[in-house]
Amino acid sequence: MSMTQIGLLTGLVLGLAGAFGGFGAFVFVLVFGGLGLLVGRYLDGKLDLSQFSGRDRN
């Protein structure tokens, strides 16, 4: 299992643990799942954040 998958699953589990129903819970889980996915992709090296820092990777 890649770090991306682990990050996504972790975000979803944390979102489910903090939410107990309704549309607000759906949005809460969606946000945590997205954050988990981004963290996992960053840890896998598949997400390049250098464009946001203003520095090039040259």
Task: Describe the fold and architecture.
By secondary structure, the protein is mainly alpha-helical. It has one domain (3-53). 74% of the residues lie in helices and 0% in strands. The chain has three helices and no strands. Helix 1 runs antiparallel to helix 2. The longest helix has 23 residues, at 22-44. The model has no long low-confidence stretch (mean pLDDT 77). Keywords: Membrane, Transmembrane, Transmembrane helix. This is DUF2273 domain-containing protein. The chain crosses the membrane at residues 6-39.
Itemize the secondary structure elements and their pairings.
Blueprint: H1 3-18, H2 22-44, H3 50-53
What's a concise summary of this model?
The chain crosses the membrane at residues 6-39. It comes from Prauserella salsuginis. The protein is mainly alpha-helical and 58 residues long.
Q: Tell me the fraction of residues in β-strands, as a range.
A: under 5%
Task: Give the number of domains.
Answer: 1
Structural class, please?
mainly alpha
How many helices? The count is 3
Determine the mean pLDDT.
77
Tally of strands: 0
Observed structural traits:
single chain, 58 residues, mainly alpha, 3 helices, elongated, DUF2273 domain-containing protein
